[in-house]
UniProtKB/TrEMBL annotation:
The keyword Transmembrane does not apply. Its EC number is 3.5.2.6. This is Beta-lactamase. The active site is at S66 (acyl-ester intermediate). Keywords: Antibiotic resistance, Hydrolase, Signal. The keyword Glycosyltransferase does not apply. It comes from the Bacteria.
Amino acid sequence: MSFVLPLLVLATFAGPAPETNTPPAPSNLDTLFDGFDATLVLYEQHSDQTWIHNPAKSNIGTLPCSTFKIPNTLVGLETGVLKDRDTVIKRDAEKFPEQDWWGKSWRTDQAKLALAFKHSIVWYYCTLADTMTNKVIAKHLKDWQYPVPGNLTSGFYFWIEGNYGVSPVDQVAFLRRFYNQELGLREKTTATMKDIMILEEGDGYRFSGKTGLCRMPDDTKVGWMVGYLEHRKGLYFYALRLEGKEYSEIMKHRKPLVRKLFANMELL
């Protein structure tokens, strides 16, 4: 079931006006997500309108998986552990030995930030978190009104294991605060983050985002696609979460579903 509402829990931000007075709205969300355990929160900034598919789950938190690389990267940039998109982190082969299921981009002795973010290189971000410490990360999360984990044990990667929870509503609220420079970040931090989040650019639009995939303690597989679409017709923030039994099905559909959502709105 889908709803349209102003979602008053999210603050309204100013921004450049779109070329049209009425930014395109989604339609037939129930049809788009038919057959999926999907939750979507979509917000258009200029019209201050929110659309929600599966509202019963929109405020329920699950592991954020690799979408947590967004706040994780921001902490790294703000603390100076990360300098720019080319910051190199070396892999500790004893702590993070190569695994059979690793993709090609993970099978390296070192990686740069932009590549690690794009390909969700877990060992890069676990090393980053160990360098910054969970307590420092948690302090920034609290300041940014992002859900704070309960377990801050060193070496415990709370965003991909345990009972830590971030909801689709949380994701969109945070992305809006980040995009509209409400987090008190340095300009270079914001610029670097926005740069590495870009997925594609075209005539009159820029599509940015981050995927995530992991397993909850009850063995439910969780997949995310979160980000924003800057378009001459509007500014959209989105968070799609898919839940299921198989990683492969979630991986195959999360990004195509978001693209189809915007394609149906004639934005991509």
